[in-house]
Automatic annotation (TrEMBL):
Belongs to the flavin oxidoreductase frp family. The keyword Transferase does not apply. InterPro entries: Flavin_OxRdtase_Frp, Nitroreductase, Nitroreductase-like. Residues 9-165 form the Nitroreductase domain. It comes from Enterococcus canintestini. This is Nitroreductase. Keywords: Flavoprotein, FMN, NADP, Oxidoreductase. Transmembrane segments: none annotated. CDD domains: NfsA-like. GO terms for molecular function: oxidoreductase activity.
């Protein structure tokens, strides 16, 4: 099997890192360079990466988001932000309107660009024999995180990434059955039994963090009204 494909298929998430391990400058630069080479809509590169090495700053970050102590104990923490400030500056310089709130498309573009850069960073990390965990919960305390990192308008945090040397080996987590995810030429209905079978697979996998069946977890999550403060935040950032 191709080495890159083997690496991708071997992906797993790590949350326990050696606290005395420090990434070399060369390793960090390799990860950041790979991240910056990610695909981007129209080469707009509508994202930025904040490299967080300072321990005091990371302590404040964990105080905001205490369920993710690895943000402090990892070797480095990267914050990926959707960034439409750069093109706002261009519009201002060119003295043209900047009508990004007329459609959700610019927000989707910037979020996708940031996510692709994030995924490249994950792959580069694993290629170096290191581990990582994506932290989407930075959006749960989005106002506090934004203030901590002085995010300007037209910018919002998409997710963070803790990177380090793993101290606990993890298993490869099973994914949904291929028949429930892959469609050829057109979207096709499939037997719901595939989803129920996945519940059984995940229950057998027995990850300690998973306290609910997969179906129950997402039935509960999407059965309640969304966090409207997130929408309010995006409006404050001039993104909606």
């Amino acid at each position: 099997m191709n080495d890159v494909i083997a690496l991708l298929k071997n992906h797993r998430t790590y949350r326990n890192f050696a606290e005395n391990y420090e990434l070399t400058d060369e390793e960090l630069e390799a990860i950041l360079s790979a991240s910056r080479q990610a695909p981007s809509w129209m080469n707009g590169q509508a994202y930025s990466i904040i490299v967080v090495k300072d321990k005091a700053l990371r302590e404040k970050l964990v105080a905001i988001n205490p369920t993710n102590p690895h943000m402090l104990h990892s070797s480095v923490f990267l914050l990926f932000v959707a960034d439409l400030k750069r093109t706002q500056m261009v519009a201002q310089k060119e003295q043209v309107a900047y009508e990004i709130t007329d459609s959700l498309n610019p927000l989707i573009i910037a979020t996708t660009d940031a996510s692709l850069a994030l995924q490249n960073a994950v792959i580069a990390t694993e290629a170096l024999g290191l581990g990582s965990v994506i932290v989407g919960s930075v959006r749960n305390q989005i106002e506090a995180v934004s203030e901590l990192f002085n995010l300007p308008d037209y910018v919002y945090p998409v997710a963070g990434l803790s990177i380090g040397k793993p101290t606990v080996e993890m298993q490869i987590k099973p994914r949904l059955p291929k028949q429930a995810v892959i469609h050829y030429d057109t979207y096709k209905e499939y037997d719901y039994q595939l989803i129920e079978d996945y519940d059984k697979t995940m229950k057998k996998f027995g990850e300690a963090r998973e306290t609910k069946l997969w179906t129950k977890k997402f039935a509960d999550y999407y059965s309640v009204s969304g966090d409207k403060s997130f929408n309010d935040y995006l409006k404050k950032q001039k993104l909606l």
